[in-house]
Amino acid sequence: MTWTPAHALVVGVLGALVWVALGGAPGSITALWLALVSPSLVVIDVRLKRLPNVLVVPGLGAVLVDLGWYSVASGRFPTAAVVATMILVAAMLGLNLLGGLGMGDVKLTAVIAGCLSLDSPWTAVAAVMLAFVLGGVYSAALLVRRRGYRARRIAFGPVLLLSFWAVIVALAAQAASVVSVS
After folding, report:
1. How many CB atoms lie within 10 A of CB 117?
2. Of 7, 16, 46, 85, which sees the most CB atoms within 10 A?
3. How far apart are CA 32 and CA 171, in angstroms?
4. Is the pTM of this model over 0.70?
């Protein structure tokens, strides 16, 4: 996929949101990676129903760097973040084995949960739950408009990314309100 000025603008806006939301805290590297690849992942998944490893797997490396950064900065290993991420990935893997999700969605969940769980494990859980709510609303809308049918699959990667960015916006709003009160 070639970059366009619109693509660059979206990446810039998402990167700025990351800075406001996380302020350079652990999780920022993964979130910036997601800012860089989100537009491409959305377009590719909508068109091809695939999330390419070349765009998703480096995010797992970013999560490892963020985990190390957290450990060094805080002096302790982020056990709760790792456990929450593992539970969410295991649940998504179960859905994959039942035929409900692709492996790209499972890997993207690992990246998103690994990033957000460094803020709080519950932040990661909320993002994944929000993705299922949004996916359900989208699927229901397709059925109501009669453009979908029960066996049709939606591209879930864009829904996961939308929920991730919604949580980042909420974290940015929270950070901005703390700054304005101080």
Report:
1. 28
2. 85
3. 15
4. yes
Report the alpha-carbon distance of residue 176 to residue 136 in Å, rounded: 31
Burial class (CB in 10 A: 0-12, 13-18, 19+), 59: buried
Count CB-CB contacts under 10 A for residue 93: 17
Provide the sign of the torsion angle of the four alpha carbons 132, 168, 35, 68, taken in this order: negative
Residue 63 has a pLDDT of 98
Does the pLDDT value for residue 8 go beyond 60? yes
Contacts of 56 (CB under 8 A, 6+ apart): 37, 41, 104, 107, 108, 111
Listed residue (43, 42, 44, 15) closest to 31, CA to CA: 15
Q: 35 is in which domain, residue-wise?
A: 5-181
Structural domains counted in the chain = 1
Residue 179: band (very low, low, confident or very high) from pLDDT cuts 50, 70, 90? low
